[in-house]
Amino acid sequence: MPGDRLTQEDRRRIAAWLTEGLTYTEIARRLNRPKSTITREVARNGGPEDYRADHAHQLTRLRARRRKPIPLPATPATAAAYGRDPKAVFAFEQRLAELMIATGCPRMVARILSCLFTTDSGDLTSAELVRRLHVSPAAVSTATRWAEKQGLIVREHGARGKQRYSVERKVGHRSILASVRANELLAELSRQGAGILGRTTPAGARLDKAGTFLHLISQDLADSAERRVREVFGACVVPQDRKERG
User: SS3 for 22?
Assistant: First the structure.
């Protein structure tokens, strides 16, 4: 089949054959095109009675220009702030996202986190993320919901109901605590499974050891995170479940 788009010569042939009274099926056969292509071409350019080849060609070119998206800046306007090199900022942002993806972070979440980390304010609205990443609002919504559940970002309601997403001041602390809670749940379930299977059986013993290991690791990680938060950020945030246990 020829190129995807009809040429001006194709349109002149269509006009001539319409004048001769040929059907859309015959015209499509002669041009080696789907019948739907011919039907759509004629219908959107005046119909079989008023179809004019040159006019149809001009209209098609105008439609193509209107559909062409306006290029959006690849980096935010603040990339050049403080005398930064915008290209270097953009390259770093790309590398940061790629590294997060390589460690298992979903691609869209990684791109959003990279944007937030490299923005001086540390926060962006949904609309700003859409424009900056050149993606749909639905893609941003899905990724931010996942990231929020993992404690990676914080969502706030701004003016006029706008959703703003930010990385918290104690970067990484919430995500570590979320990981601790997940490990604690898994540890508890493993110990329950050991009780069901019998701790003296091979499967029960395996689950019992796994539960004990995960519990100890979770405690070590939580204690270390609280200590390092105090050292680096000057404050310590104690997770609610640990307060209740204490």
Answer: coil
User: pLDDT tens string for the chain (246 positions)?
Assistant: 444 579 999 999 999 999 999 999 999 999 999 999 999 899 888 888 889 998 888 888 777 665 555 444 444 545 667 777 888 888 888 888 898 888 788 999 999 988 888 888 878 888 888 888 888 889 999 999 988 888 788 888 766 667 888 876 666 666 677 778 888 888 999 999 999 999 999 999 999 999 999 999 888 888 887 888 778 777 544 444 444 434
Name the CA dihedral angle for 221, 227, 228, 231, rounded to a multiple of 10 degrees.
Answer: 180
Residues forming beta bridges with residue 155, ordered by sequence position: 165
User: Could you tell me the two tokens for 87?
Assistant: 């290209």
What letter represents residue 190's amino acid? S
Global model pTM greater than 0.70: no
Token pair in block for residue 89 = 């900022």
The SS3 call for residue 155 is strand
Would you say 242 and 218 are in contact if contact means Cβ atoms under 8 Å apart?
Answer: no
Dist. CA 235–CA 153, nearest whole Å = 19
Query: Which segments of the chain are extended strands (E)?
Result: 123-125, 154-157, 163-166
In 3D space, the residue among 228, 227, 193, 225 whose CA is nearest the CA of residue 211 turns out to be: 193
Cβ count near 72 (within 10 Å) = 10
Amino acid sitting at position 219: Q
